[in-house]
Design goal:
With 94 residues, this protein is α+β, with helices and mostly antiparallel strands. The chain is 19% helix and 33% strand. It has a 4-stranded mixed β-sheet. β2 and β3 (46-48) form a beta hairpin.
Length: 94
């Protein structure tokens, strides 16, 4: 990924929390009617979108930043030149 694109993506984030040493990763998305409603973490736990945002702010999820749209906060991948860990490329669970 080029640096200009990286910078543009990073500019869309409101906050980039520093993850704790034991932070989880998001391994799958939970969707309801095609809309992300939560996240499955690497420890197997499923959290709501709001819980995920709060966990990330506290350093509990790595590889994500916080963005907002229409007053709602959500998680967004931090660019790292690897496509397979981007949230949009993750599998969906129910």
């Amino acid at each position: 990924m080029n640096e200009k694109y990286n910078g543009l993506v990073l500019n869309t984030l409101d906050e980039i929390p520093s993850p704790n040493a034991n932070a989880n990763e998001i391994v799958a998305l939970v969707k309801e009617k095609g809309v992300i409603s939560g996240y499955k973490l690497s420890n197997g736990k499923i959290v709501s979108k709001d819980e995920g945002v709060n966990m990330a702010k506290q350093g509990g999820i790595k590889g994500v930043g916080i963005a907002s749209r229409k007053g709602t906060q959500y998680l967004k991948s931090i660019p790292d030149d690897t496509q397979n860990n981007n949230l949009g490329n993750l599998p969906t669970v129910h």
